[in-house]
Amino acid sequence: MDDEGTRSEVYAELAGVGPYGVRPGHALITMVEPHPGHEYAYNRWYEDDHYIAGAMAMPWMFAGRRWVATRDLQLLRYPAKSAVARPVTTGCYLSTYWVTQGRYDEHMKWTVGINRRLNRDGRVYQDRKHVFTAFQDHEATVYRDGAAGPRDFHALDHPYRGLVLEVIDAEGPERRAELLEWLRSTHLPQRLAGTPDSGSPAAMVTVFRPTPLPGDRMSYVKQVEGVDTRLTLLWFLETDPREAWEERFGELDREVAASGLGRVELVAPFIPTVPGTDRYVAELR
Q: In the CATH scheme, what is the code of domain 21-283?
């Protein structure tokens, strides 16, 4: 068998072993700031090339969605002194991806390999800054409507109108499990209680914890901070985040601080991009 045939056979062997469920056991969450003057070029590169060749074409990455924060959305972020974004308005594009549970190691081997190739072939756009980029392990999903409605594995395909990224640091590594339990059993259910008309506009919140990036990662992506203390929350909204922002999301930091378990380092609203267009690019600055 020639070399090409041997390589093709490997795909069949890999497909026949290992987990292949539908759970989003892992995620890639990446917030990026294009350099000033490069907003249009960055948007077209990411959407026309990198989103596909550098993400969705990879094994075990089964869902993805891009989000954008126009200038008015950026100005809603808090706290002003964020350990995640400096200044807090930095990072106008957010991409979220689900990776099949139990396939993190295999996916990471592929992603390092493909990004080396993309970089070598001149298909990596350099005029950008990674503000918050981390692979993450799924810890919990809390739903507003119980068994009704989309599940977390649908979240990146369902036409949600907005997303809020919240990053919380526990008061030390030994407190993160306690913080997670409080979020899962008390804080998030209370925040999600009700219906879109009488309660939260968020249908679900997914909770992740970051994992360290491999040592052979690309040099333009900094190592993940807060691996032992941090939790990342994604609030999926059925309304525009600007609607009732102060009422629904304006005091998340105070509630977390009052628990004594951690501190909020970022609350940032986004809306979905419109694939195939440059909509919102003119509204970033």
A: 3.30.70.100
